[in-house]
Amino acid sequence: MALNKSMHPRNRYKDKPPNFAYLASKYPDFQKHVQTNLVGGVMLNFKDPEAVRALTCTLLKEDFGLTIEIPLERLIPTVPLRLNYIHWVEDLTGGQGSPRRGIDIGTGASCIYPLLGASMNGWYFLATEVDDICYNYAKKNVEQNNMADLIKVVKVPQKTLLMDALKEESIVYDFCMCNPPFFANQLEAKGVNSRNSRRPPPSSINTGGVTEIMAEGGELEFVKRIIHDSLQLKKRLRWYSCMLGKKCSLAPLKEELRKQGVPKVTHTEFCQGRTMRWALAWSFYEDVSVPSPPCKKRKLEKTRKPLSFTVPGPTAVELHSQISSISSTPTQTPSESITVWLEKILTDLKVLHKRVPCSENELSLFLTAVENTWIHARQKRRERGRQLREVPRAQPQTAPSLTPDTSSDPAPAPDLVPDPELATDTAPAGTAEDSTEPYSDGKETKEQKDTESGTDIIMEASNIEEPKQESSSPQDPPSPSTAHHFLFKCLVNVKAEETDVSVEMHWVEGQNKDLMNQLCTCLKNTLFRQVTKPTSP
């Protein structure tokens, strides 16, 4: 949940993500879509549209008392993202808990914005829709939640935005909101033209009908049409707003509003899971209060947030009991044992490391990775096992014979039998078992209480000099702090938290943060593999 800490402050999922295990125990329709990973975490396949739909319907039922139906061939909304937009409209209108009138342009089959706004704040909505299937489902969802007195769903012609919807209306609305179709064509919808090649693929499936995800000219031209309507309607609405799927759309739309002389313009960011969206709002009223755009501080805080994982109490205790197998020096606490295990794994991976001073109740390692030795570790283990199995069998030491030996090959010598440990088929060390999806049921570690002091520790660690030695072998590895060529440097903190042990990796410098993410996953998987490893007879 990489961006959840930057959610809207009032978003109920900001500090308390959905508990998949609890929801699965309460809702059978949701339970059949969850899976349990090797360490007991509950996961959801966000590439499966039925699983995404089950999560959305379950959250709306559990947290808002709403019962909805959504066809798989239409857009399936994510609840935290829509909730961010609702809270921002509250900020625009000062309408938290007070009656307001709004318009939802293209409400979709779920009719989620009107249902959330009406159930949370008692808002009245005019919800427009051009698609027959979406219109029918939206009306049904409003009726089965007894919201018909607050939400009016209307069918409008294709390409209708605000002008046609309001031509018979004389009401002054407080706001409009809209999820415009993000894409201009099928290639963009598939990510061929619009997605940076260096970005990872989307973590969830893209659902939606043609009118919901594509429009002529994409979201940029769609929002320009809303701006054109607003220039004619002007004060018929106090605030006009739209959500954007691409950050690059924001600047040209703000420039268009500036050229048209619109007096009040603002924007914001919606952050949730691995997803970011942007929103733009404008008004022709001089007396409206304009929320400030997001500051740059959030991005700085995001770069400082460490990668982390938690070693559960029972796993930490088991690793502590096995410490004698890798170290002759006894350890006092599970966290100290975890640190020794990490040092062993890093040594095997040829990652330079050393212990550095740290705060009380913590152990810290300063790492310098000079070579990517952790990627494809599973394949390397299999290859080693295969090579051992294919070692030529030793021939018996017998006197030379004048005739060829036609007897069968002798059994392999005992010391040539492959080590079953090396041939064990285990999970790939470079693959995250529970990657950053929009929701996660894993236990989160506590953030640093003092970001600045944490940064100081990192910088001090990177500048620590190695003690000079009188003699050094040419084969000795370079010091982590003096290596001139490296992939990245980071600080690893190991800390006891009640019965568990948390491991945090703080970026210092380097070429690519994805490499540190890969190493973090490798360290976690290798630690857990020590507990599940079969014991020798």
UniProtKB/TrEMBL annotation:
Q: Which InterPro entries match?
A: METTL16/PsiM (IPR017182), METTL16/RlmF (IPR010286), SAM-dependent_MTases_sf (IPR029063)
The biased composition feature labelled Basic and acidic residues covers: 440-452
Keyword Cell inner membrane appears in the UniProt entry = no
Pfam families xrefs: Methyltransf_10
Note down the stretches annotated as region Disordered. 381-455
Enzyme Commission (EC) number:
2.1.1.-
Keyword Aminoacyl-tRNA synthetase in annotation: no
An annotated Gene Ontology molecular function: RNA binding
What are the GO BP annotations of this UniProt entry?
Answer: mRNA processing; positive regulation of catabolic process; positive regulation of RNA metabolic process; regulation of mRNA stability; rRNA base methylation
GO cellular component: a single term: nucleus
Q: Which UniProt keywords apply?
A: Cytoplasm, Methyltransferase, Nucleus, RNA-binding, S-adenosyl-L-methionine, Transferase
Q: Which PANTHER family match?
A: RNA N6-ADENOSINE-METHYLTRANSFERASE METTL16, SAM-DEPENDENT METHYLTRANSFERASE
The family line of this record is: Belongs to the methyltransferase superfamily. METTL16/RlmF family.
What's the protein name?
U6 small nuclear RNA (adenine-(43)-N(6))-methyltransferase
Organism in which the protein naturally occurs:
Astyanax mexicanus (Blind cave fish)
